[in-house]
């Protein structure tokens, strides 16, 4: 019932059932939105651009504005409605030679014709229960739309973040490949001199030469991979830039606890429960007597002659009552439909609660395992870097064979790749935990 209490404070809620909702022009202006960078580099910049360019978020905002208009429409519907009624009906009658009618309606019923031009005004009265429920339904729809907007924004953030991490991993691999290629090229000249001096054989140098060419191919492959991942990221965010730029290292989010019942995914099920309650009340309201005050003014006559029309101007008024009596037990059938919907909603809530807790605990375990793995890989990379540095110095003096040095470089390359993958996986788990904590 917390949601029902929340609705009491909304414009158009039951506490203001008889008070018109302020028109959109009187609503508070939207907060200013920060300008999106033309060529984003940071994760926050991509998220900002994606939110501003997302047609789904823009559509949700428009639907929220339409929901405000729905409140105004419902308020107008409860006001005075004026309509015009016009009719010109002629009822012919055929008689025989004795003056007896052989074809046509009874003149006592039709008076030969009906000519009318009336303006009629109606206003619902004694409908407080139905009006309050209608306002609550509209307010609930507004809450659902806002919650849907939060979920859409979270899904967009998750999509952009995952793609940003893939682009970051590709750029990290490209940066390492370039650095390694630069070192190999620097040693290439030294090895040429050592080969010419007879320190190494020509066949040994050819193995090193092939390794340099292989690393050049790896650099180009990594550049294409980064260009592809960066292009996908820009496409998701709606960025038109095509330049190959360097993106900044994402900042890991802080540890966020698992959100409770006010999280968008949980709140959606709570709003569904409230909607089912309001739908049941709407069924009850439909079967209540409906009373309207009616007032009309105009002319009605059984003759189309001007004199008769001039003498047939008048006014009328009264009450109009509509009472449902029997409709084949549709009311009970609608109750059964709502009961089945409530059972489905409860099943979803139970499943979602267990699933979110399991995913949250799993991500916490993955982060702890990633921290331990990263510590081991970084230590191995540190040792491998020291070995490669020492072997590079001994290679210049001919104390290390070229093949042994290449084996060290290959191991160092594989460890660096494993380090990049482990760091990316850890960041992905940290951002996934942050997303789940807010979802």
TrEMBL record:
It is found in: Cell outer membrane. Gene3D superfamilies: Outer membrane efflux proteins (OEP). InterPro entries: TolC-like. This is Outer membrane protein TolC. Keywords: Cell outer membrane, Membrane, Transmembrane, Transmembrane beta strand. PANTHER family: OUTER MEMBRANE PROTEIN TOLC.
């Amino acid at each position: 019932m917390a949601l029902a209490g929340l609705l009491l404070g909304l414009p158009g809620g039951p506490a203001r059932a008889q008070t018109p909702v302020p028109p959109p022009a009187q609503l508070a202006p939207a907060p200013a939105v920060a300008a999106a960078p033309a060529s984003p580099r940071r994760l926050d910049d991509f998220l900002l651009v994606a939110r501003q360019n997302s047609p789904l978020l823009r559509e949700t905002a428009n639907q929220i504005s339409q929901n405000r208009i729905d409140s105004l429409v419902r308020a107008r519907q409860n006001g005075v409605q004026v309509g015009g009624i016009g009719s010109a009906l002629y009822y012919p009658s055929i008689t025989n030679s004795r003056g007896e009618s052989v074809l046509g309606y009874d003149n006592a019923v039709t008076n030969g014709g009906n000519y009318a031009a009336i303006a009629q005004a109606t206003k619902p009265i004694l409908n407080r229960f139905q009006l309050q429920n209608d306002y609550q339904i509209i307010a609930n729809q507004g809450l659902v739309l806002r919650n849907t907007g939060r979920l859409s924004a979270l899904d967009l953030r998750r999509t952009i973040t995952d793609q940003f991490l893939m682009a970051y991993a590709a750029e990290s691999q490209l940066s390492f490949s370039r650095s390694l290629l630069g070192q190999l090229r620097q040693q290439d000249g030294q090895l040429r001199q050592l080969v010419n001096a007879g320190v190494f054989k020509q066949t040994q140098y050819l193995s090193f030469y092939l390794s340099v060419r292989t690393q050049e191919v790896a650099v180009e492959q990594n550049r294409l991979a980064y260009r592809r991942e960066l292009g996908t990221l820009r496409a998701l965010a709606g960025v038109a830039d095509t330049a190959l730029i360097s993106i900044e290292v994402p900042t890991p989010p802080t540890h966020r606890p698992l959100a409770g019942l006010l999280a968008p995914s949980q709140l959606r099920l709570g709003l569904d429960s409230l909607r089912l309650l309001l739908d049941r009340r709407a069924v009850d309201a439909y079967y209540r007597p409906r009373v309207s005050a009616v007032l009309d003014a105009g002319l009605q006559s059984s003759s189309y002659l001007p004199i008769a029309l001039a003498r047939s101007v008048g006014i009328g008024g009264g009450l109009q009552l509509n009472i449902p009596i029997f409709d084949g037990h549709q009311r009970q059938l609608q109750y059964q439909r709502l009961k089945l919907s409530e059972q489905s909603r409860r099943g979803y809530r139970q499943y979602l609660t267990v699933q979110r807790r399991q995913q949250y605990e799993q991500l916490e375990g993955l982060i702890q395992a990633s921290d331990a793995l990263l510590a081991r890989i970084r230590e191995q990379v540190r040792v491998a870097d020291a070995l490669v540095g020492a072997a590079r110095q001994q290679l210049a003096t001919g104390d290390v064979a070229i093949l042994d040095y290449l084996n060290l470089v290959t191991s160092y390359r594989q460890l660096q790749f494993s380090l990049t993958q482990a760091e990316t996986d850890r960041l992905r788990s940290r951002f996934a935990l942050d997303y789940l904590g807010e979802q």
